[in-house]
Amino acid sequence: MPPTPPGPEPLGPLLARLRLARGRSQQLLAAELCAASGVPTLSRHEVSRWERQLRVPGGFWLGWLAVTLAVPVGLLAEAAEHSRPARRGTPPAGPARPRAGGTATRHPRLRAGPSPAPTGATTRPAPPPGRPVHRAGRRSPPATRR
Q: What backbone phi and psi angles, to 5 degrees, belong to 14?
């Protein structure tokens, strides 16, 4: 079997290698990316998804990764482009796990046949007039005057 031609390293392994070479954890890298970009919602879980190639970061995050890891953005962009076609044709790693709490057949929309009529359905009493009601059926606290 001939050796595979050399090409750019896929983005996931490249990110992991660069991060580990700088002695950073996924959590620390995520915190640095949040601080640099001003976006407080990036977590270590997203960094993990990038490294495992479950997701490929877009141009916004590639730019901030380049700043945070002190590498040229072109290196990361080339690796991302190399990773995208490989991801599209690759099937998932394994069978999908069922969600906690049961199988899909328990969900009424996924069950075959007509849905059964509700039995013993109770209705809530109407709220007193002038008090708004939340969707959960709880009354909102009375308004305070200043």
A: -65, -45
Number of H helices, E strands in the chain: 5, 0
Q: What is the pLDDT of residue 25?
A: 97
Inter-residue contact 13 to 83 (CB < 8 Å): no
- Please give the C-alpha separations between residue 50 and each of 76, 122, 130, in angstroms, as whole numbers: 12, 48, 51
Residue among 19, 13, 51, 49 nearest 32 (CA): 19
**Between these two residues, 93 and 122, which has the higher pLDDT value?**
122
pLDDT score for 125: 65
β-pair partners for 40: none
92 pLDDT exceeds 90? no
pLDDT at 73: 95
Per-residue model confidence (pLDDT) at position 123:
63
Q: Is residue 65 a contact partner of residue 15, using CB atoms and an 8 Å limit?
A: yes
The answer to whether 84 and 59 have CB atoms below 8 angstroms apart is no
Q: Which two tokens stand for residue 114?
A: 């007509």
